[in-house]
Specification:
Layout: H1 3-9, E1 27-32, H2 38-47, H3 52-55, E2 61-68, E3 71-79, E4 85-92, H4 95-118, H5 126-134, H6 140-146, H7 149-156
Helix pairs in contact: 2-4
Length: 157
């Protein structure tokens, strides 16, 4: 383990792992076919700290760390803003690489869900959009400024 990761994990015993900042994200950890690791829990929480505004849910996030056939897998399950279920599974040779992969995929999925929620307005009819763009309105002042008084008198006669 390199020095940066070692310094990241020092003094972790006092950190609460069931809930992070602001009690917005509640994370439940499960370990299958491996011993529980505070370092893995801390790394996942540290990397997902900036995702709190995107998640905004009161339901817990279920994170399962597992080792199957020599492959390190992480399965993340959560309900997004629109109450849609997001399930992600990433597999790699190293558990830390799996954490990086699942956090990247989770970021993409959450931003996609947020953009669906914010850009939900109905599309405008193409014909109406073309008519609105081609319609030119001229105020009365502009109309009368362009007219010459002599031309106006001649056209009335």
């Amino acid at each position: 383990m390199d020095e940066t990761k070692r310094s990241l994990y020092e003094g972790m015993e006092s950190l609460p792992f069931n809930c992070t900042k602001g009690e917005i994200m509640k994370v439940q950890y499960y370990f299958r076919h491996m011993d529980s690791s505070n370092a893995l829990m801390y790394e996942f929480e540290h990397k997902t700290e900036n995702l709190e505004p995107l998640i905004q849910t009161s339901s817990p996030i279920n994170v399962t760390f597992m080792v199957e056939n020599g492959q390190h897998k992480i399965h993340v399950e959560l309900h997004a803003r629109t109450h849609t279920l997001i399930e992600l599974t990433e597999v790699s040779e190293d558990m830390h690489k799996s954490i990086d992969l699942v956090v990247d995929t989770l970021t993409k999925a959450l931003t996609r869900e947020k953009s669906k929620q914010t850009h939900h307005h109905v599309k405008q009819d193409r014909f109406q959009a073309a008519m609105a763009a081609s319609t030119v309105t001229v105020s009365d002042d502009e109309f009368f400024d362009d007219l010459d008084v002599d031309e106006g008198v001649k056209s009335l006669a």
